[in-house]
Amino acid sequence: MSPQTIFFIIIAILVISFVIDQLLDYLNAQHFNDPLPAELQDVFDEAEYQKSQRYKKERYKFGILTSATSLIATLLFFFFDGFALVDEIARSASNNEIVIALVFFGIIMIASDILSTPFSYYSTFVIEEKYGFNKTTRRTFFLDKLKGWLMGAIIGGILLGAIIWFYQSTGQHFWLYAWGIITVFTIFMNLFYARLIVPLFNKQTPLEEGSLRSQIEKYASKVGFTLDKIFVIDGSKRSTKANAYFSGFGSEKRVTLYDTLIKDLNEEEIVAVLAHEVGHYKRNHIIINLFAAIITTGFTLWLLSLFIGNPMLSKALNVSQPSFHIGLVAFGVLYSPISGITGLLMNYLSRKFEYQADNFAKHTYAAPPLISGLKKLSKNSLSNLTPHPLYVFAHYSHPTLLQRFRNLRK
Ligand SMILES: [Zn+2]
Predict the structure, then answer these.
(1) Catalytic machinery residues
(2) Residue of 102, 118, 129, 264 with fewest CB within 10 Å of its CB?
(3) pLDDT tens digits, one per residue of 233-273
C-alpha cells in the first residue's frame, strides 16, 4: 500500500465518521418535538417542556458548529502537513526521541485545546448560563484548564515516555510492557482517583451524621454492604446538574453524592439512587468494566505493535524520518473505526448494567422512589425524553428514562 493510499484512508475515516455523527444527531433532532410518552407526562409542565426543547435545539446547533470546525481544522492540518511541521519544531528542541515525542504531543494538545477553548467557554457561559445550569466562575473555568494541562502533562508524559522507552529497548514486544504499566496505572487510578485527583478540582466532605446518613446505613446493613465512605462533593461549584457515582473497590470503595443531588431529591429518593449504585458494585460491574478496559487496551497495543514499525505510516503524513509518535498519530486515526465498534459494545454493556442496578434497587429497596428520583433528575437537567433509538444505541450509556421507567414498573 502506498503512503498516498494510507493518507486518503485516513482522510476518508475522518470524513465518514463526521458524516455518521451528523446523521445520528440529525435523526435525533427530528424527534425533539415529539409528544411526551404518557408515562413521562409529569416530568415537565408545558413551559418547562418548551424550555427543554429550546435547550436541545440550541445544543444541537452548537454541536454542528463545534464538530464542523474541528473537522475542518483537522483536515487542514493533514492537508498542509501540520504534523511534519510540528515534528520539525520538536526535533529542533532535542535529539532524544522521548523528548521529541513529548514536545510533539505537547504542542498538538495545547494547540487543539486553545482552538476548543472558545467553544467550551461559549457552551458554559452562554448556553448553560442561559438555561440556569452554570455556576462556574471564569476563574474556576480557567483554573480547571490549567490544572487539566498540568495533570495531562505529568501523567501523559510519564506514560508516553515509558512506552517509547520500552519500544526503544524491547522493539516489537514493547506492547506487553506498555500493557503492564497501563494496567497498573488504570487499577491505581480506579482505587485512588477519588483521593488524589478529585481534590484538585472539588471539595469532598464525609456525609454528616443525621437522618439521611442513618437511612443510608440502615439500607447498607440490610443488604450486607460495608459502606463507611459516603462523600458529598461540591458539584454546585460548577453546575446545577446532579449526579452520584461509585468508585474504587475493596477497602477503597466509596459513594460520592453531589450536593446538588441532596438538594434536589428527598431522602427516600437519595437512598434509592444509592441502592442503584450499590447494585453496580454487588453485580461486579466495577470489576467487569475495569477488566474490559484492560483487555481492550491490550488488544489496541498489540495491534499498534504490528503497525508502528512500518515507515509507511510516517510517510503517509509526509514525514520523512519515521518515528513512534508520528506512527501513533496515523495509527490513532486508522484504529478509530475499531474503537468506534468497541465503544458501541461498551455502551451496550453499560445499558445492560444499568438495568441490573435498577433491578437491584427495586428488589432490595423500592422502585417508586427511584422512578421519582430519576424523573426529578431528568427535569432538572432538561433531558431529552424522546431520543431516536439509533442515537440511543450509538451514544447512550444509560437506557432512556422511559425504558428505565417501564423496567422498574414491570
Ligand atoms: Zn448506574
Answers:
(1) 277, 358
(2) 118
(3) 999 999 999 999 888 888 888 899 999 999 999 999 999 99
